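Sample entry follows:

_____
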Amino acid sequence: MTPVTKAYLPNHPNHQAWCNGWLSNEQVAQTAKALSKNGYGQYLADLIK
């Protein structure tokens, strides 16, 4: 089985807003920091790298 390197959640509001330019990288980074203790916070941090 091939490991998945990145899974995207394209239907999540933060992802949609970021892709549409409604949230800046800085705003996503702030949310990621606030949620850093869970998987979604890490997902957001990886998204803007």
Observations:
- Residues 13-47 form one domain.
- Residues 1-5 have pLDDT under 50 and may be disordered.
- The longest helix spans residues 25-34.
- DSSP finds three helices and no strands in the chain.
